[in-house]
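Sequence in, structure out.
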Amino acid sequence: MAKQKLNTGVQNKIIYSRASYLYQAADYLAKRARELPPDAHDAKGKSALTGGQIQQQQRAIENLSRHVICDMRAVSLKAQIRQGTSLKHTICKFCDTIQIEGDTCHSVVENQSKGGRKPWADVLVIKCNTCGNAKRFPVSVSRQQRRTMRQTKPQEAKGEGEGNVGGT
């Protein structure tokens, strides 16, 4: 007799937790890069660093954040695990920057359908401030079914109901 397989839950749990940790670290670093470094002030409250030095530190922290995201992608690709769509929406594909609204990206809702007459054609456009790339997502619209799966409306008989009163 063969051994019964036990349901152990999520496979590759260690790899998922490592990818999650790397994402959280990159998010922390990206947010930290936007704040004034705590070591920028001395004991008297005066600025110990010049503006150029602060910008240089911020760039270094942003680059570290991008490097951590690159490592997270490498881990998930090597282990062949899928990242969630919500996680993928928050990362720029081209420069590996975490998209923080107002800081590293800006978003606009566009509707390019005949002057915006079709409300179901709204598209959320997220533009990365680092590389300038734009990602587009449909807003609150379910995907249209394939043409073969769509139901066609039955043709109404012509002449019925219009102008015919009592059959005369």
